[in-house]
Write a structure and sequence with these properties.
Blueprint (H helix, E strand, L loop, with lengths): L1 H16 L6 H10 L2 H24 L2 H19 L5 E2 L1 E5 L3 H10 L6 E2 L5 H9 L4 E9 L3 E8 L4 E5 L2 E5 L5 E4 L11 E4 L6 H9 L8 E7 L3 E6 L4 E3 L5 H15 L6 E5 L7 E4 L1 H17 L1
Parallel strand pairs: 2-5, 6-9, 9-10, 12-13
Antiparallel strand pairs: 1-3, 4-5, 6-7, 7-8, 10-11, 11-12, 13-14
C-alpha cells in the first residue's frame, strides 16, 4: 500500500503544479487592471507624466529655453507686424479744436504702430483726466484708425478764486481757466468757500434773477452754507440757508412793486425769513435822522 500512496502523492503534486487556477497575487492584479481608476492612470496620467518629464528635462537646458523664447518672440513679431494690425492715424470726435489738440499732445503716438502695442486703458485714463473731458471712449475702429470719442464738459458758471477765473460745469467740476470775464458774459460768477459744491443751487438762483440780471455781479458763498446775491452799487441780498430761491423771488417781487432796490440800500437781509431787515446807505441814514430831528422839533 505504501508504494501506491507515494505514487498517488507524486501524481497529485504534478497536478497541483499545473493547476490552471491563478494565484492570489495574480488574481488581485487582474482585478486591479479592471478598475476605472487604474485604467485612467495608465491611459492618461502615465503618458502625461512621461511627457511632462521629457519637457522638463528638455527645458532644464538654458540654451533650449532661450531658443524657445526667441521662437515665440519671432512668431509674435511676425503676427503683430502684419498690415491688418497696423494703426495709421488718430481721429478725435466730439471735442472742440482746442481740446482735440490737447488730446493729441497728451497721446504722443508714433504712427504707424501695431494695435498690440497700444495701451488703450492707459490712453483712456489720460483723456478722462483732462478737466475739459466729461467722458471718453478709446478704441481701434475698422480701417486701422485710433478712435477717441469725447464728451466735453459744458461751462455753466465762472468761479472767482485764488487762481483767478475758472470755468465750472453744472455739477461743479472744473472745465478749465477763463482768460477774461468779457468772453463769458452769459455765465454767472460765483465765489466764496465751497462755492463749487453748490453750483446747481447757484444756477437755480440765476434762473430767477431776470429783472435784476442787468445789475447782477455774482453770487458769493458765505461760510459754505448760504448765498449772498451781489448787485452793482455795492448792494447785497443776504439769502437764508433754506429755500434761498423762494426768498430771492419774494425780494424781486417787492422790488418790482415799490422799487426797493432802487433806493439807497446796502443790504437786504433775509436770513431770518420771518424778520427781514434792510441796511440803508449813509446818505439815506443821514436824511432819516434829519427828518426825525425836524419832526421831533415840530412836536
Amino acid at each position: 500500500m505504501q508504494p501506491l500512496n507515494r505514487k498517488a502523492k507524486v501524481a497529485n503534486a504534478k497536478v497541483a503544479r499545473h493547476d490552471p487556477a491563478p494565484s492570489r497575487l495574480k488574481y488581485r492584479m487582474e482585478r486591479l487592471k479592471l478598475t476605472p481608476g487604474f485604467r485612467f492612470c495608465m491611459r492618461v496620467v502615465l503618458p502625461c507624466a512621461v511627457a511632462f518629464g521629457a519637457v522638463s528635462l528638455w527645458a532644464s537646458s538654458g540654451d533650449n529655453r532661450a531658443a524657445f523664447n526667441q521662437m515665440i518672440a519671432d512668431v509674435r513679431e511676425t503676427v503683430e507686424s502684419r498690415p491688418e494690425f497696423q494703426v495709421k492715424l488718430m481721429a478725435v470726435d466730439g471735442a472742440s479744436p482746442a481740446v482735440a489738440e490737447q488730446i493729441r499732445l497728451a497721446l504722443p503716438v508714433d504712427f504707424p504702430i501695431s494695435s498690440f502695442d497700444l495701451d488703450l486703458g492707459k490712453m483712456h485714463e489720460t483723456v478722462v483726466a483732462m478737466h475739459a473731458v466729461k467722458t471718453a471712449q478709446v478704441r481701434v475702429r475698422q480701417g486701422n484708425v485710433l478712435q477717441v470719442e469725447v464728451e466735453e464738459r459744458i461751462p455753466a458758471v465762472l468761479r472767482r478764486g485764488e487762481r483767478g477765473l475758472e470755468l465750472l460745469d453744472d455739477s461743479g467740476a472744473l472745465v478749465g481757466p477763463a482768460k477774461s470775464r468779457s468772453k463769458h458774459v452769459m455765465l454767472p460768477v460765483i465765489a466764496g468757500e465751497g462755492a463749487h459744491d453748490a453750483v446747481p443751487e447757484a444756477l437755480d438762483l440765476y434762473k430767477v434773477t431776470g429783472p435784476l440780471r442787468a445789475r447782477l455781479r455774482g453770487f458769493e458763498r458765505m461760510g459754505a452754507r448760504r448765498w449772498d446775491v451781489v448787485l452793482d452799487q455795492g448792494q447785497r441780498i443776504m439769502l437764508p440757508e433754506d429755500n434761498p430761491v423762494r426768498a430771492l423771488e419774494r425780494t424781486i417781487a417787492m422790488d418790482q412793486a415799490i422799487q426797493m432796490l432802487s433806493r439807497d440800500l446796502i443790504v437786504v437781509d433775509l436770513r431770518l425769513p420771518r424778520r427781514p431787515t434792510i441796511r440803508m446807505g449813509q446818505d439815506a441814514t443821514q436824511a432819516m435822522w434829519a427828518a426825525n430831528t425836524i419832526n421831533a422839533a415840530g412836536e
